[in-house]
Design goal:
8-stranded mixed beta sheet, ABC_transp_ATP-bind, Rossmann fold, 31% helix, 4-stranded antiparallel beta sheet, 11 helices, ATP-binding, ABC transporter ATP-binding protein, 12 strands
Length: 312
């Protein structure tokens, strides 16, 4: 099988700017994404990791056609979907939102929430009931939950319902936008393992968005590290986690709490961010920064991964 037959999604040179100031004399823009490119293979999990404001959720919204990019293209199975999705293409894409308390309609019973996408896409009522009973079990809940309302469920149960809604149309790709951040630590691993099992059993691909490199490293096959809308480093999970190259990736890994206090590492303080549009986006906070960083680096390919740094 060649790489083109494995490829499900291709994101090519995405750039997105938001207008933040508009006066008679001047317009100021915030660049949320700058020339971001990556691919998602069928049945794989791609992790997008970075701090708040790095552009992770913007990528997910563009893929789902919720917003349009200023530049770049998105291809689903080699079809350009940048400027619109057909009804059939929309069935192939789905999303899991961050907080199920706000993403689930409190006036609907769980069975109504799960049936709504099926109704929109014209499934007969008898099929809808059969599918809903199956997906609620697929996410580890009993059929009795179908007659409950969201407020009657715990946080972890609500997120399982949100996942059930995401898989009810049997999509090819799901954008999971920080689906564990609103949960207790004890529940996070259960949801991560559920996502992993859905990939293994149903062949669904995931784009998993998170600020937690520890979770992304556990779940993903491929990792993309973002900072200020720019890809700092991307490659296979094993390479990124075991041998990070970019200084920002190293700092993210260093911030992961140790298993035991005696394993604590010396933490390098991260400087405050200062806007530096001319040079490397990470220069003002980088412990390795030199005068050379006042010029933008180019991407360098090393053993199958790409790194955005002068010192590779």
């Amino acid at each position: 099988m060649d790489s083109s037959s494995r490829q499900l999604l291709k994101v090519e040179n995405l750039t997105k700017r938001y207008l933040i100031k508009n006066t008679f004399f001047k317009k100021d823009y915030f660049t949320a994404l700058s020339n971001v490119s990556f691919t998602v293979d069928k049945g794989s999990i791609v992790g997008l990791v970075g701090e708040s404001g790095s552009g992770k959720s913007t990528i997910g919204k563009i893929i789902l056609n919720l917003i349009k990019p200023d530049e770049g293209k998105v291809y689903l199975l080699d079809k350009d979907i940048t400027n619109g999705l057909s009804k059939e293409d929309r069935k192939k894409l789905s999303i899991i939102f961050q907080d199920p308390r706000t993403s689930l309609n409190p006036r609907y019973k769980i069975k109504d929430i799960l049936q709504e996408p099926l109704t929109v896409h014209g499934y007969p009522k008898s099929e809808r009931e059969t599918i809903v009973k199956k997906v609620i079990k697929d996410v580890g809940l009993e059929e009795t939950f179908l007659d409950r309302y969201p407020h009657e469920l715990s946080g972890g149960q609500r997120q399982r319902v949100a996942i059930a809604r995401a898989i009810v149309l049997n999509p090819m790709l799901i954008v999971a936008d920080e689906p564990t951040s609103a949960l207790d630590v004890s529940l996070q691993l259960q949801i991560v393992n559920l996502i992993k099992s859905l990939r293994d059993e149903k062949g669904i691909s995931f784009i998993f968005i998170s600020h937690d490199l520890n979770v992304v490293g556990y779940l993903s096959d491929y990792i993309i590290v973002l900072y200020k809308g720019k890809v700092m480093e991307k490659g296979k999970k094993e390479d990124i986690v075991k041998n990070p190259i970019h200084p920002y990736t190293k700092l993210l890994l260093q911030s992961i709490p140790p298993d035991h206090p005696k394993h604590r590492k010396t933490f390098i303080p991260i400087k405050e961010s200062i806007n530096n549009p001319e040079g490397c986006e990470f220069m003002d906070r980088c412990p390795m920064a030199t005068q050379q960083c006042k010029q933008k680096p180019t991407y360098k390919v090393l053993d199958g991964r790409e790194v955005y740094c002068h010192f590779v």
